[in-house]
Amino acid sequence: MREDWTFDAMGLSDRRRFRVNNPPQGWYLKSVTHEGTDITDIGMEFKEGQNVSGLEIMLTERATELSGAVQDSRARPVTEYAVVAFSSDNRKWGFLSRFIRSTRPNQEGRFSIKGLPPDDYFIVALDYLETGEESDPEQLEKWKDTATRVKLADGDSKVLTLKIEQ
Fold first, then answer.
1. For the chain, what percent of residues have pLDDT higher than 90?
2. For a surface tag, which of 79, 81, 124, 145 has the fewest beta carbons within 10 Å of its beta carbon?
3. In a shared domain, residues 134 and 52
4. Is residue 125 classed as helix, strand or coil in its secondary structure?
């Protein structure tokens, strides 16, 4: 990336989605557009040797945040758990989806998930999460029945107390 924030991407072919790895602290991907069309989640088809202009990657400081704590069935605090937040729209489920995020608690037993795109979400607390399980559509389908629903708009911050799913 150059000082004027323009960039070149060489050797692209097939369908590609753009992501920003390691953005500046506090910044999150808002959208990717090509000539005014939002391609953030569908990507764009490239032909070998093709020159493309009009691609814009928009970052934002107005990140969403889901945070809180987890309790057991007797309303006692739980400190060992995993939390998965995922879109209520199953078309947005899949490997490396921006609409799925998992986390574990900090040392105080609290969780925080920042930077989810605005959407309607399910969020579930689990006593155990296997690696990759949060991207499995069959597993997400099972979890949604006991999950808490939450709507996130641009810049929203929500604090939740979740019950553990055992």
1. 61
2. 145
3. no
4. strand
